[in-house]
Amino acid sequence: MKSKDTKLILEITDLHASVEDQPILKGVNLKIHAGEIHAIMGRNGSGKSTLSKVIAGHPAYNVTSGSVQFQNEDLLALEPEERARAGVFLGFQYPIEIPGVSNLEFLRVASNSRREKLGKEELDTFAFEELVEERMKLVQMNPAFLERSVNEGFSGGEKKRNEILQMALLEPVMAILDETDSGLDIDALRIVASGVKTLAKPNTATLLITHYQRLLNEITPDFVHVMSAGQILRTGGRELAIELEKSGYDWIDNKEGQTEGT
Amino acid sequence: MTSQNQVGEIVSQPYKYGFFTDIETEKISKGLNEDVIRLISKKKKEPQFLLDFRLKAYNQWLKMKEPNWAQLGYPAINYQDIIYYAAPKSDEKKKSLDEVDPKLLETFDKLGIPLSEQKRLSNVAVDAVFDSVSIATTYKEKLAEEGVIFCSITEAVNDHPELIEKYLGTVVPINDNYFASLNSAVFSDGSFVFIPKGINCPMELSSYFRINSGDIGQFERTLIIAEEGSSVSYLEGCTAPMFDTNTLHAAVVELIALDDSAIKYSTVQNWYAGNEKGIGGIYNFVTKRGQCRGRKSKISWSQVETGSAITWKYPSCILQGDGSVGEFYSVALTNNLQKADTGTKMIHVGANTRSTIVSKGISAGSSSNSYRGLVQMGPKASGARNYSQCDSMLIGDNAAANTYPYIRSQQPLANIEHEASTCKISEDQLFYLQSRGIAFEEAVSMMVSGFCRDVFNQLPMEFAAEADKLLALKLEGSVG
User: Fold this and answer.
1) Which end of chain B is more exposed for a tag (fewer CB within 10 A), N or C?
2) ipTM field
3) Domains within chain A, CATH numbers bracketed
């Protein structure tokens, strides 16, 4: 495990959130430091995806209490686009199709919005094309995908590669990947995982949300958290994921109440 | 607050062109009768045949009933409460722009249509129409070198009466419909274009219509003739000040394409739409029709309709010549309480005629947006083809979109295809774009302009960007 002296990037304190008055998160606590890779595991409906959407600012979710600090800033006070510009990235479990909007133009506008925040110069279409084609190599994506509408008609694997491409362009400080492994065959999983590993830097942090252990065979997490019923019930190292794989989630439910901080 | 509500809010952007020019205007008194028509004709020093044309149309109009089949619904119009002619004082057409009232030049400057020698657009000739009269036409001499006539219809009546007599009312007859008959009786000004045989018009032609007075009706008349083997691209734009009363605008546009000629007619319509409570705004009842008289001739309509309280408009093509081509590309955006009932008619008469219809309707607020179109294959239209695509986008929960396609075929060897779709900007799509750093308003406008791309691609280069900006403006605003 890494030193606790490194910079604190994300601090979630007693977070409660609901959707349509239905409480989903019931007191989540989590601290993530620079250079760390965290994984949250849990069965369907445990609140893992909700947590990622609340962090990114999805309007359907209401935060009822608690706080989220991102690099000492109140993240919950920011609009979703401001969070993205500040360096929070959410890789979607089901990337959304946007007919009519060209993928290239979308990537360019997104990238420029983050570049502006970082004090980098805005890229025109030509300069951007050079950058994006170089970044596409990271996920072995065909430049033909730039000409198409955002995610429209992409296969599951192509959509996930497009997500990692966006991450490569936005260079986030805090990357949250929601079920990025779902729907990928083993080759695509390796490509996506290697992209994520390449993008993880000592001054950034990664949070993987996953159902299965197999992504964690490719990307070794420093911490594994187990979520159930809207709370993080257990936190451990890599070995916790392996234990889960062996014994299933019932094993956690039986040991309920043993929450540990990091 | 959900983002669907936010989308609804941001489409309410104050109207940019709502200013009023304080200029001395000569108006005739309200109301309509034969004397008024004689007065208009006299003011314009028209030949007898035109006065006869007007009076015949007026007498037809008296026998007609206002149509009510469109999906519109509006309070009855009192036709005796309208002024049928208004013009800036000293309406004598000036020889040079230096003599035009600076206030008028300034008005067009403010509208982004600079007319003066130094500032005017380099490759676009402009005819500027203020209330009932044309105040200036640029590049007339340069166009004349190629034999192209581009002037106000009033000038054309004086300088080329034989062309007017030959073509006026031959595509839209004086008894065509209620509003066309009214226009034929009282039309004031508009543009006239004549492209002689074999000439490709060397620049874009453009008319800019500005309504300034509140209580007048605007009845412009446009006539475009493309002779054999010629081609022209023409664009019209329109705006009006904000008044809390409704202003009637009933225009007629006639296009005539002879053998192997091509006319491209584009419209960016941004009349005042009324406020968010539906008070004020232009009633826009327009008859636009083109006739492909010659073989292998082509008429293409593109329109971006964003303004007016009510829009009633069906730019159509009569495909008479064998192998002639008709096209209709439309974007109609309605917001607040705006109502639009718009579409096209493709009348296939000749053999192997082809038509394409692409219509994109965007409805926001509590507006209603209908596509109404007719595709007709006549008995001689063997091998004719039509493809229609009608897409609607709904923004918010209170807007309505309707599609009324009418298809009639008397020809077993004709091919007709129709596709339609309706979509809604979803919260998840907006969130996806936002989560990549794209601001809410920009996300909406990206999606809307993506939705309209097929149509924008058809606009002349200079105006495609303008149309995109116009939609973005309409969709921009105070998002909290």
Assistant:
1) C
2) 0.94
3) 8-254 (3.40.50.300)
